[in-house]
UniProtKB/TrEMBL annotation:
Residues 1-20 form the signal peptide. The keyword ATP-binding does not apply. Residues 216-279 form the Protein CPL1-like domain. This is Protein CPL1-like domain-containing protein. InterPro entries: CPL1-like, PriA/CPL1_fungi. It holds the Pfam family CPL1-like. It comes from Polyporus arcularius HHB13444. Keywords: Signal. It comes from the Eukaryota.
Amino acid sequence: MRVFGFTLVSLVLGFTIVNAQKLARSANPRALRSSRAARTIGGTLRVRQTTTDTCANLDGQDLVVNAVDYGGLDGVVLCLSGVDAFIDTNAVAQDAAADQGVPDTRAALNDLINASGEVCTYPAGSTPAATADDPCAFTCDNGFTPSPAGDPTMCVCEAPAADCNGVCTTDACPSPGPAPRRRGYTNSLRKRAMCPAGTTACAVYERRGVRSNPVDCVDTDNDLESCGGCINPLDSFSPKGRDCSAIPGAMSFQCKFGVCIVNSCDSGYVRAADNSSCISARRFLQQN
């Protein structure tokens, strides 16, 4: 990976540090995944397209806080992200909070969820819709459809509809605007010419999140973080890549010929048939 627009000293130092970090992370995929979760690019947080939560069906369980039983949580399906709102609205939780305090009540509910729940992954454009049978269920917004059927992991726009500015519709999509100026197109060509054969010119973010002249020359056929294309595309014509290290539940993974391949999954997950992702073992067994 080469970075242009900096001094020679910065280039050599940056090259050494980046490659040392990549080598260490490749040897320990779990460390790579944890470091990527909070990684910043030039001070700008890289936001994931997916969100996670832990949810559980608590029907039939009692809420016990500091050895005091406050009654059953009948028909309750709850996620960690919703515990505070639950304490504000549920009569059993309100009684416990009034006697034992909100922190202890929150801790007791968190323990119940973690003991019997599962980690849920919600794709971009989805809304959690937990049920007793499937605490990780979700719906898709703006006309998109959960996919694949039976064990959805993403929201897709099915033909004959098309994605029009984030809305799945069969209506005509208005033009996104005027064509890019010739100067911008020429600038992109110049940046691409900076990278050697076999690499792809990808954008770099500065501290304020604005693309600048420097580029990353990435081997998108093999790069774990920009597999198959750039995570930060140079322009609208650049292919969008996939971050293999962000695959939920993946323990060991690789980028081969521009495609993310999962070698093994964390405990509680199994590999998908095409080795492209990890599926919750609990949901897998329910289907089979």
